[in-house]
Write a structure and sequence with these properties.
Layout (H helix, E strand, L loop, with lengths): L17 H21 L8 E4 L6 H9 L4 E4 L2 H10 L6 E4 L8 H7 L2 E5 L2 H14 L3 E6 L16 H7 L6 E7 L8 H21 L8 E3 L6 H6 L4 E4 L1 H4 L13
Parallel strand pairs: 1-8, 2-3, 3-4, 4-5, 5-6, 6-7
Helix pairs in contact: 4-5
This protein binds pyridoxal-5'-phosphate.
Pyridoxal-5'-phosphate (PLP) binds next to β8.
Length: 256
């Protein structure tokens, strides 16, 4: 099994003040715009989702002040706590990490988006809790495009089956597919992951367009978002390039 630790990026300076966040967000957004144009795409078609996992609330407040009105969190407990403590601020929460069915109730209570849907059991649990709460949520189906045991997500061959079932769960609004590419500096090994997600999306959209919503592609992180945009990403999930290098080992966020 491949080392599940995500690339750490010591070169990213920690953002503390509102001005630090503005500088980092502007820099990332400029790279997003350039990557999109280079690929002949409209930069407005790429959403930047800042990922605030491990970042304490005192700093998140400044990120929100700098314009982050949607934040991604990998772990449900952490997201729930931050949502509660920052409830009076203008921010919505996207859960981007693997979910166990016993936490579905929490996600249904506060999240506006869930990007790591990878089983019928989770879809069922989440829908039931959402129906009870009178809420609905945007979802992305997570796909394992790197063929590593160390990544969550459905095998590409199982994606259509799951999508076929999702119309039964009316509180889940399918928006597209999500993936984590192989963690590597080697572009020639990373790019095929993004290409696989895109071709899967294209194929499903062609054959059964009703199943895949907008056909969005959530792919790309601090180390590879420009490449992901070249390959069609519509949502990049960027943590360290905005908040600064993470001290917490990333192995805590992925199965090891
Ligand atoms: C942490 C995380 C990211 C962001 O990673 P960075 O290296 O901080 O940009 C993206 N997606 C998921 C699922 C994550 O857990």
């Amino acid at each position: 099994m491949t080392d599940p630790a995500a690339p750490s990026h010591p070169e990213f300076r920690t953002a503390v003040e509102v001005a630090d966040f503005r500088r980092n967000i502007d820099a990332v957004q400029a790279k997003i715009d350039a990557a999109a144009r280079k690929a002949g795409r409209d930069p407005a078609d790429v959403r930047l989702l800042p990922v605030s996992k491990t970042v304490p609330e005192e700093r998140i407040v400044n990120a929100i002040a700098a314009g982050c009105h949607q934040l991604g969190e990998n772990k449900v407990q952490e997201a729930k706590r931050k949502h509660g403590n920052l409830a009076d601020l203008d921010v919505s929460w996207s859960v981007i990490g693997h979910l166990q069915t016993n936490k579905a109730k929490d996600v249904a209570a506060f999240a506006d988006e869930f990007q790591a849907l990878d089983s019928l059991r989770v879809a069922e649990a989440l829908d039931r809790r959402l129906q009870a709460a009178g809420r609905s949520i945007d979802v992305y189906v997570q796909v394992n495009t790197s063929d590593e045991d160390s990544k969550y997500g459905l095998d590409p061959s199982g994606v259509r089956d799951l999508l076929t079932q999702l119309p039964n769960y009316s509180a889940l609004r399918v928006r597209g597919l999500m993936t984590l590419a192989l963690f590597s500096d080697d572009v020639d090994r990373v790019r095929p992951c993004f290409q696989l997600l895109r071709s899967l999306r294209d194929q499903i959209r062609e054959e059964t367009p009703d199943l895949i919503g907008d056909g969005g592609l959530s792919m790309g992180m601090s180390g590879d978002y420009e490449l992901a945009i070249e390959e069609g990403s519509t949502c990049v999930r960027v943590g360290q390039a905005i908040f600064g290098a993470r001290a917490t080992p990333d192995s805590m966020y992925w199965p090891g």
